[in-house]
Amino acid sequence: MPTDIVMPQMGESIFEGTITKWLKQPGDKVQRDEPLFEISTDKVDAEIPAPASGTLQEIKVAAGNTVQVNTVVGVIAGEGDGTAAAPPAAPPAAEAKKEAAPPPPPAATSPAPAAKEPESEMENGDQGRVRSSPLVRKIAKDNNVDLGKVPGTGLGGRITKDDIEAFIAKHAGGAPAAPAAAASAPASPAAEAPLAPAVTTPLQPVGGVTPGELVPMTTMRKKIAEHMIMSKRTSAHVHGVFEVDVTRIVKLREKMKAKFEAATGSKLTFTPFFARAAVHGLRKWPIVNSSVEGDNIRYHASINLGIAVALDWGLIVPVVKNAEERSFVGLQRAISDLGERARTKKLKPDEVQGGTFTITNPGIFGAKFGMPIINQPQVAIMGVGGIVKKPVVVTDKDGNDSIAIRSMMHLSIGYDHRIIDGAVADQFMMEVKKFLENWNEELL
Description:
This protein has ten helices and 19 strands. The chain is of the alpha+beta class. The chain folds into three domains: about 100 residues, CATH 2.40.50.100; about 60 residues, Dihydrolipoamide Transferase; about 220 residues, Chloramphenicol acetyltransferase-like domain (Chloramphenicol Acetyltransferase, 2-Layer Sandwich). The protein is globular, with a radius of gyration of 26 Å.
């Protein structure tokens, strides 16, 4: 029998959601728990799985529309229903225009080698990870396909099931045919010559936008804008920047990363080092781990670290709860897990709430340091700059100076001057700096 697809309630405080994209169209086969459509709320963006297996019979709410939770947005016909698929709801003008575009011309039958497929965009700060669903990754693994070579047409370059299936069909039908043709007759010199590099194709803008195009803000973008403006109006922002020698940490990570991954199954990144240092500083200076409530200051009992994650479609800050109770390995696992689920739209609303202090890392994109905006209702945020090697004057224990090549970086602190004075912010940052420069904790 048919199964209704409803707008889910993504948290107790979530009452509506916006459908940003349907990943299936009426008539398409769907499997239970396969990503079916994408939604955006004022807390998270998420992929919603199919509630049952069958055929997508009807789309009742088109992409771009906002509805209350528990609203029926579509219908899945069961395997034996035999019900004809109903036409989808009328799409917005922008989608209709896109769908009206003519299909690409069929592949040429010439045995000449095919042009190189454009590479998919990699995730920020995690090179080699391509945005895709578990189903897509399974299909790629079963067919020995490198997802890095599959062009994604989904939101933010996401590789959809249709993308991987089209890629497999194209290369299964075209690529193997060339050796057979070559075996029947010797190839001409012209056919053997490699293709000249394409130089006439213009570079495509990031995000698939067209210069001059007017694009409406997404729900997430609107919320980010509102939140940032509100924060600037609320807090008296002041910033400070500290240079830190992280040579010891760089060497330790290089020495331990293979062993760490083998023992934990998680890659050793720099972020947990900064998280541990922040926890140490916040224990010493709890005012930095507070918030303002009217004319009162709330000193938080737990340290809930927000770790900013840059996405192709915005920015989100998942929260590592009770960071003070976690080991180094526990921090690394929590940070990796939250980051991965942020990129695949699997976060729950309560995982982006309750933060008491935030760490953001503009350094992964090459910035020396940043001046971040405080994430309300918090009162401070720490920015992590890029690590570079440079000559530094080093003083030994006897007071002798020398010049050495060291791994250096900058940490910035943005704080609310309503309750945190410059002296307190600077002393907090000095604790973080000393902790990093004199790192003596075991990683495993």
